[in-house]
Amino acid sequence: MSPGTGAALRLLAATLDAKSVAEIGTGTGVSGTYLLQGMRSDGVLTTVDTEPDRQQVARHAFRAAGFAGNRARFIPGGALDVLPRLADGGYDLVFCDGDRLESLEYLAESLRLLRPGGLVCFEGVFANGRTVDSSAQPAEVLRVRELLRAVRESQELQSTLLPVGDGLLCAVRRG
Question: How many CB atoms lie under 10 A from the CB of residue 117?
Fold first, then answer.
């Protein structure tokens, strides 16, 4: 994740005064650290990843950044298995940085998870310039194009594409 993308996430979490954030794709904790920096001091980040080893690295990163252990809830597993168990309307922000082939399913789950006025963000939607390249593209790029179209055409969302990092798609769930 680029510093610009991280700064944008931090700002968005702060703007929402986010208390509850869900993250798809813990990675090594870089995005989670930015999110936690922007969240309220009593906020909790729920982060999902298929790799428990990465979550352990993220746990150490959060601690090293000065966050108390109760500020993050780590759930190992596939996002499409975990997300249905999370509370409807219980999240201020959902950040998606998981499997691009599952992005449309992440969008559907995010709409269920978000409170009205909540925000969903997808990282990497430029796909290194491939989303606008007219040549033949792999399935993951075609899926990102479908995601962009679905968000743009949704009556439930107000969206924008931020030109930070490899593209940050942000959409507010209308009330």
Answer: 11
